[in-house]
Each structure stands twice: as structure tokens, then as C-alpha cells.
Amino acid sequence: MKLSFVLTTLLLSFSFNTFSQNTNQEVIIENQQPFLLGQITVGGLSANSYKTWFEPNFKNYETDQKQIDLFKDQLASYKILIFMGTWCGDSKREVPRFIKILESADFPRENLKIVALDYRKESYKKSPQGEEWGLNIRRVPTFIFYKNGREVNRIIETPITSLEDDILKIISQQEYIPNYSSSFHFD
């Protein structure tokens, strides 16, 4: 009985360790800038060399609180998935701003998932766990909005008007066509 319990515990421990993903995994390649890969947190973006671009872009962005107040209550019922590259100029600019908007809207952190994609040629714009599979991620950052488990819309690379305005259009179900929409289709 004891041996069975120990073996079961070891097997479960191995399974969880094998299939779990490290958060804020950093890839370091000789003579190149390190980058984050896979699921990351806002804390990961605020650490190490990433804070040199995250913190100023977060701190210096002035949110449009009037627009945020228009979608704040509805936004909490959405889940948001962000694909980004810590090596990408657009991601370095837009993701900190987007995070600041979410914080200004009191968006629940548990409804946000951030995935950093690879920079290396052999696995360019891919993640270790394949979260991008089937989602047609061609440009980063891509902010995907989900409601009741279904994709509602996305902001691709840069906003059309402003992040606040684009989010408001998506949340209030106004017509919104993201950048590069010709390579993107809803089901």
C-alpha cells in the first residue's frame, strides 16, 4: 500500500512537471539580447532588462479614463489573450500601454494571459506550448478578446484609432476591422 502511494505520488509529480510550463522563461543566446518565451506575467515584464522599456512605456502613457469608464464594467466579463515578442518594437510600445488600460479598468488579472513568442528563425513567432496554434498569429502584438469561450475580435499590431477607442468598439460590439484583417478570418 505504501509503495503504491509513493509510486502514484511520483508519477503525478512527474506528469505535472513534464506538462507544466515555466512562467517568465528567459532565453539567452550568446551575443544577443535575451528574450522571454512562453507564458509570462506583468511581473516578468517589469524585471531585468525588460523594465527598461516596459516601465517608461507604462508610466508615460496617459490613459483616456473617460473612454475606459465607458467599457470598464463590460470588460471584466471578457478574457484577453496577448501574443507578443519582448524583441518586437510594437510589442514594447503597445503592451505596456494596454496593461495600463487594463489596470485603469480594474480588469481581473486572472482573465489575462500573456504569451511571449520566439525570435529565433527555426521557431519564429511560436511558443513552447503552441498557444498560437490555429489562431493565425502573424504580427505581434495581437490582443484577442474572448467572451463565453469564443473569440469576439482582436487588435493586431497597432490600434486603428487608439487602444481605448478600439477596445470600446470591440466591447460595445461596434463594427471594428483590425489591421491586416485580410489575413484573418472569424469562424
The ordered string of helix (H) and strand (E) elements is HEEHHHEHEEEH
Strands of the widest sheet, in order across it, are 1-2-4-3-5-6
Number of helices: 6
Q: Which of globular, elongated, flat, extended, rod-shaped describes the shape?
A: globular
Q: What does this molecule look like?
A:
The chain has 187 residues and is α+β, with helices and mostly antiparallel strands. It has a single domain, classed as Glutaredoxin (3-Layer(aba) Sandwich). The protein is built from six helices and six strands; from the N terminus they run αββαααβαβββα. A six-stranded mixed sheet has the order 1-2-4-3-5-6. The longest helix has 18 residues. The N terminus is likely disordered.
Task: Record keyword descriptors for this entry.
36% helix; six-stranded mixed sheet; 187 residues; single chain; Glutaredoxin; globular; alpha+beta
Question: Summarize this, please?
Answer:
With 187 residues, this protein is of the alpha+beta class. It has a single domain (36-181), classed as Glutaredoxin. It has 6 helices and 6 strands, in the order αββαααβαβββα.
